[in-house]
Structure formats: C-alpha cells, structure tokens
Amino acid sequence: MDGMDLFDVIVLGAGPVGENLVDRARAAGLSAAVVESELAGGECSYWACMPSKALLRPAAALDEARQVPGVAGAVTGSLDVSAVLATRDSFAAQWDDSGQVDWIDSTGAEFVRGHGRLDGPRRVVVETPEGVRRTLTARHAVAVCTGSAAALPDLPGIDGAEPWTNRRGTSAEQVPGRLAVVGGGPVGVELATAWQSLGSEVTMLVRDDGLLSRMEPFVGEEVHRALSDAGTEVRLGVSVTEVRRPQPDGEMTLTLDDGGRLVCDEVLFATGRRPRTDDIGLETVDLQPGGWLETDDTLRVGEVSGGWLYAVGDVNHRALLTHQGKYQARIAAAAIVARAQGVPLLEDDRWGAHAATADHDAVPQVVFSHPEAASVGLTAREAEQRGVNARAVDFDLGSVAGAAVHADGYRGRARMIVDEDRQVVVGVTFVGPGVAELLHAASIAVAAEVPIERLWHAVPAFPTMSEIWLRLLETYRG
Ligand SMILES: Cc1cc2nc3c(=O)[nH]c(=O)nc-3n(C[C@H](O)[C@H](O)[C@H](O)COP(=O)(O)OP(=O)(O)OC[C@H]3O[C@@H](n4cnc5c(N)ncnc54)[C@H](O)[C@@H]3O)c2cc1C
Ligand SMILES: NC(=O)c1ccc[n+]([C@@H]2O[C@H](COP(=O)([O-])OP(=O)(O)OC[C@H]3O[C@@H](n4cnc5c(N)ncnc54)[C@H](O)[C@@H]3O)[C@@H](O)[C@H]2O)c1
Hints:
There is one protein chain. Helix content is about 30%, strand content about 25%. With about 475 residues, it is α/β, with parallel strands linked by helices. It has three domains: about 1-40 and about 95-150 and about 275-360, FAD/NAD(P)-binding domain, CATH 3.50.50; about 150-270, FAD/NAD(P)-binding domain (3-Layer(bba) Sandwich); about 370-475, Enolase-like, domain 1, CATH 3.30.390.30. Helix 3 packs across helix 7. Belongs to the class-I pyridine nucleotide-disulfide oxidoreductase family.
C-alpha cells in the first residue's frame, strides 16, 4: 500500500460539512483527506445560501429604509440590478474555489480533486479530472458528506425544457421577464422574493395549501400576504402536469392540474432535494445507491459492519441546513476521534459530546423572505404529534416598542411553545422584518432547556425587539 494514500479519515465531499469535519479531525491530530468533484465550498457557497442571500438583502434593506420616517423621502431610486448581480457574483467568489482550497490546505488535510466512490470497506477510489485513478484508504473512518441536489418531478416535457433549479435560480445573469416558481418551501419562497425584487413577473405554483408549510401556519400567511403585495401571484393547491418549450430559450407553457395553463420565460423547480448517493459506490459496502443515508446520533451508518462509515450533512436527511450539517460535522469528528483513541464509553447520551441531539429538538432556521421567518424547536403541531403537553403563547410583534422604532407600521408575529409538564420552552417562531437576529436567544432557551422561572430573570433591553420575550412570558404567566 502507498503510505501517502493512507489517512486516518477520508471525507467524501468538500461542502460546508465535509470541510468542517476535516478541520475538526485535523485539529484533533488525525490525518485526513477530502475529495471534491466540483467546487470546494459545496452547494451552499455557490448555488444556495450565499448567492441567494446576496440577491435578497438589497431589496430588504430598501424596504426597511422606506419604512423609516425621514429616511423614506431620501430613498428615491430603485434597485441597481446589475450591482446586485455583481455583488452576488462576488459572494459566490466568481464560482472559483481557490480560496476554499487554500483554507483546506491550511488545515493540513490533503485536498483531492475528483469524483470519489467507495470501493469496499474503508477504501475510496478517486477519478481525477486528468483521468487518473487514485485509491485512498482510511485507518478509522470514511465520512460521506456528498450533500443533496434538486429533485425534479418526472413530468412530460421537463427534460427538453431546461428548467431552472436552485443552480440557475441563484446564478442567472439575466432577469427573466416572466418566472414561474414551482414549490412553496424555503427555496421557492426565497427565490420568488429575490427575482420579483429584481424585476421579474413571478407566479408561484404551490401544491400545498400554504407557503412554508413546515413552520407555524401564521408564517406562511404573512409571507404570502407580503409576496402578493409586492406583485407576486401566489397560487395554492395547484400542480404542474406538463412542461412544453418548443424552442430552446423560447417561452414555455406549463399545463396545470386545475385545467389552466401558464406561459412563462423560465420555470424554477423548487420541489425539494434528493441525496447525492447514486454514484458513490454504496453497492460495494452492501448499501442501496440513491437513498438518504440513515445514521445514529453519532452520525455513524449503523447498517455497515465495522462501524467505519459516517454520513454527515444533507446526505443523512436529518436537517437540510448548513449550520446544522456543520454542527453534525463537529459531533461526528469528536466521535471519530474518540473511537480512534479507543475511548471506552462515548458520551452519546442526550446532549452528550458525541450525540447530535439538537437535530431532534433544537434546529434553528431562518428563511430570508421579506418578512423574514425564523423558528427553532417544535411547532404547535409537532408538539401535539410528539404527545407533549404543550401550550402555544402568541404575541403581536408589531406592538413591541423596539419594533415600532425599527419600522413605521411594523408587522410581525411571535409564538412560544411551552412544555407545561417540564416548564421549559420547546419551540419559538417569529415572522417579521429583522427577526433573524432574534432567533439565537430562542435557540439557547430551547437547547439549554432554561426553566420558564429563570427566563423571567433574563431581562430584554428597552427598546429592542427582544422585548417580545417579556411579552410572551407575561402572556404565559397571566
Ligand atoms: C437555494 C438554497 C438556499 C439555501 N439557503 C440556506 C441558508 O440560507 N441557510 C442554510 O443553513 N441552509 C441553506 N440551504 C441548505 C444548504 O445549502 C445545505 O444544507 C448545505 O449546502 C449542505 O451542505 P453539505 O456539505 O451537506 O452538502 P453540499 O453543500 O451539497 O456539498 C456536498 C459536496 O460534495 C461534493 N460531492 C458530491 N458527490 C461527490 C463525489 N462522489 N465525490 C466528490 N465530491 C462529491 C459536491 O460537489 C459538493 O461540493 C439552502 C439550499 C438551497 C438549495
Ligand atoms: N434559508 C434557509 O434556511 C433555506 C433556504 C433554502 C433552502 N433551505 C433548505 O433546503 C431544503 C430544500 O428546500 P426546498 O424548498 O427545495 O424543499 P422543501 O421540501 O422544503 O419544499 C418543497 C416544496 O415543493 C413542493 N413539491 C414537491 N414536489 C412537488 C411536485 N412534484 N409538484 C409540485 N410541488 C411539489 C412541496 O409541496 C413543497 O412546497 C430545505 O430542507 C430547506 O430547509 C434552507
């Protein structure tokens, strides 16, 4: 065996999750290699989190300025679309990953460019862009961090129509005249908001009966209202049954299940994700290609004997979010290191150092719609499904002094879910401009299971929007 190609840990995929896992493994003194077939930094850096946020922030800033008396009159122009797109390009590092590769190099891990596949236990074969095959062997662990890709529905005509997915939806250089967005989840809502603000005439086609249906229902209602006010047509309870684009780059016609048709210049399918596991050699370790990789709380794939295979980030379907995948990477790296060092007992009990407990109970998410939506922990419906003796406490965020200072006519709502038996907060949801930065206090309350009686002593500063906490607690206590 070539000693150069033996590593303690091999990571497949250098998205945000793979990069973090490799960094933590190196920090603990393990040798590591990370294999990447496209761009180091993954979907998040180039076609997801970062470019979408760069597209969304300018219109949010403009709206907020227009809601401050005295400032509104000073804002007379409209968005500079080419400047917004240029800023987006720079947030996506012009789709050049050399900065990220330099960072990986600085950790002391080996970066291997190419498509990686498992080749039996603890072995990964990489096909490099130069056509060279390289075999890497892991002493302790292989971590699959290959992420997810857009899932397209199997519709007649879709193959030849070149629909947008999140990739074109975040990297397009031209603003389409008429854009149809299929799907009402975070991708659909964020990208509809962004392209509407840049000048597209947007129609959302959503098969559910509301937007952002995994959050509290009032979130979708507020976001729907704001999208409609901005000029987006939101159609609920409708699905696309056929896509026709007779000429490449020409207009397209979508056939709908309500008998209608929609003519548009581009269609963006934001209809969920599929795991990137179809071509990573899972069959060589007796796993089924193409599926999500199920793990235990140490992020280890239990079905594989020898305990050397981990699946971290989107690919395990626990929580498809960058921050949550990076949290898993920290936990997985700690577990790999502990096992490599022969630690007899892992701290894999609830909230232990080697268990990704937050994936079950305290996943924070911010959807950067206008208004923003932010949540952590359980919704009222999820609490009920889990059999929690829960009470939902609601408050109008707009009536808090800090919100009134933030914007004239501020609209927003908040809900806190209290576990009545344990007297702790198990879920919080906010919707309104600027609520993203309110969320971490909620994450701490939920993850730390702070007793309600102690939260009463956590005094929010006046006049900030955080006074919503006081109002929620006052409402709860009566
Ligand atoms: C439009 C959009 C906006 C989003 N916005 C946010 C947001 O604001 N905040 C947030 O937290 N989350 C957001 N997400 C989700 C976030 O992008 C993902 O959760 C995150 O990218 C997952 O990271 P990952 O490392 O698991 O996978 P990925 O980012 O998908 O990275 C996986 C990497 O593995 C590589 N790879 C795959 N197969 C192989 C192979 N066989 N060999 C070598 N390399 C391979 C890929 O090329 C890729 O670089 C958004 C998603 C979308 C689509
Ligand atoms: N700011 C953020 O945190 C952020 C932003 C974007 C995406 N993400 C993450 O990325 C993941 C993917 O997001 P998403 O919005 O693509 O997926 P999603 O699963 O959240 O929503 C998909 C939507 O498409 C609809 N849909 C699915 N199949 C359909 C079909 N055949 N026809 C019509 N409609 C269909 C669903 O009903 C739903 O409305 C999510 O888990 C999300 O958390 C996060």
